[in-house]
Amino acid sequence: xxxxxxxGGTKIEGVLLANGGEQLARERVATPVHSxxxxxxxxxxxxxxxxxxxxxxxxxxxxGPGAISSVTGLIKNSNTLAISGRALPADLGARLGCEVRFSxxxxxxxxxxxxxxxxxxxxxVFGVIIGTGTGGGxxxxxxxxxxxxxxxxxxxxxLMPGVTEARRCYCGRLDCIETxxxxxxxxxxxxxxxxxxILAPEIASRSAAGEVLATTVLDNYCRxxxxxxxxxxxxLDPAAIVxxxxxxxxxxxxxxxPQYWTEYVFSxxxxxxxxxxxxxxxxxxxxxAWLW
Length: 292
Known about the structure:
Blueprint: E1 2-7, E2 11-17, E3 23-30, H1 36-51, E4 59-64, E5 67-68, E6 75-76, H2 88-96, E7 100-104, H3 105-116, E8 124-130, E9 134-140, E10 143-145, H4 177-181, H5 183-192, H6 200-208, H7 212-236, E11 240-244, H8 252-261, E12 273-276, H9 283-289
Parallel strand pairs: 1-4, 4-7, 8-11, 11-12
Antiparallel strand pairs: 1-2, 2-3, 5-6, 8-9, 9-10
Helix pairs in contact: 1-2, 3-9, 6-7, 7-8
């Protein structure tokens, strides 16, 4: 059996899976914000409660923001500051008395969808989370590609091609793909075009209702997404791209993006499939369990 834990900024989710992937138990708790030690203890207590539901010993996988630095062994690139610069997997393993495997939350999402989700039938999968950010993960033959710098799949911090707006990213750079393609990026594009301060789902609803401005902005968003993903296809040539996160629920994406990326992909015919995640918000925690 496998226990997976997904550490988020506001909640920690745990799941207990049978060997075949069947969910046996699931629980959520609030993420402590006052100290690193409280985060470790909250995760450990959650794992222990899940472990107590079965007689055997379950493996433990943990997904979260950031990555393990190959230089220091500490968490880097995390927007959850409490764990940044800390040896989270090692500290949690010492608390639990077992090995804990860690991977970036986008890697866990991609792994979940590649093992038994929407990308299960494909040998190479690029998993994309387009929500509050634009995370990504690469899975080849059901194995996560981490990379020598532990940043494989971080497409969201490449330069967005074809823009001159100079949007500042939280990473300190200008015009990262994330600043245009995350949910907030779509909302900003709508405001910049003269629209109201509304969220991405409302923009999609207004477009579906016939609003010209919303339709124009959303069409441009699909073209930007196609342009950004074409770079991934030209480099990785994945069989499938699986989309998750809140923006992935905008159905027009699956129609327009494959149409538009044919203009940018270096091939006479792009056979890459783009599909919506099977497990939605549960993919991250399931992928953490599949790290074993």
